[in-house]
Amino acid sequence: MNFQKKVVIVTGAGNGIGKAIAVEYAKAGAYVVIADNDDKAANQTLDLIQLTQIGKGVFIKTDIRNYDEVTHLMKETFNQFGRIDILVNNAGVSRFKSMYELTLEDWDDVLNTNLRGTFLCAKAAAAYIRSNKAGGSIVNIASTRAFMSEKNSEAYAASKGGITALTHALSISLQDDQITVNAISPGWIETGDYADLRTIDHKQHPSNRVGTPEDIARACLFLTNPDNNFITGENLIVDGGMTRKMIYEH
User: Fewer CB within 10 Å: C terminus or N terminus of the chain?
Assistant: First the structure.
């Protein structure tokens, strides 16, 4: 897919899924803005983008919980490139601990980063995207944990469930601005050493493998391809089929 000179903002692009998304857009010719609050990680992603020798990358340090920093991110992106075409809301945090031990500060940090941050970025970016003649796209990274759970995931599950609902609400509100808004819900995406995974880890997936960050990156490119602008308000589950598999204990 060709994203030549499209301006793409990826939050949380310093590590894992966000890093892969940023690099894949660069490989497709995009100008990628790395929005992250980790200087070292963001600059490592920037180095990978430069190695593609196709796209272009810049780093704008941003804490997406902070309204002023989000406003600065969008303004500085527009000042540098003259437009914003695509926003990928990927940044997020988790606190997997017993609900009896989960503090109010833990809860607020997860919700403020994952859900509030997603809304702040979408709102600020849409104000620029809507000025494009052809509109643009927003993709929010949710999680299969919005629909199924393990123990001790209350804050994270609530934030990701909120993102799926926010996604379809935004898609309706932004329809007149020609902005598609979709979510991707990843399942098990291995961001560590893939070689350390066991056969049983792969075989429990109907796809016969655990996912990689590049799987999510390709889904982002698909949803933001202008040829696919008939798709909006949707949540694309990318989990190797796990949420469709019935599991019984024997």
Answer: C
For CA atoms 204, 219, 180, 76, give the dihedral sign.
positive
Q: Where are the domains of the chain?
A: 7-244
| Residues listed for the chain | 250
* Structure confidence by residue, pLDDT tens digits, 62-120: 999 999 999 999 999 999 999 999 999 999 999 999 999 999 999 999 999 999 999 99
Its pTM stands at: 0.96
Tell me which residue of 9, 246, 234 sits closest to 127, measured CA to CA: 9
Annotated catalytic residue within 25, 156, 194, 248 = 156
Q: Cβ(197)–Cβ(154) under 8 Å?
A: no
**CB 189 within 8 Å of CB 243:** no
The reply to whether CATH 3.40.50.720 applies to domain 7-244 is yes
To the query of whether residue 156 is one of the catalytic residues in this protein, the response is yes
Give Cα 218 to chain centroid, integer Å: 12
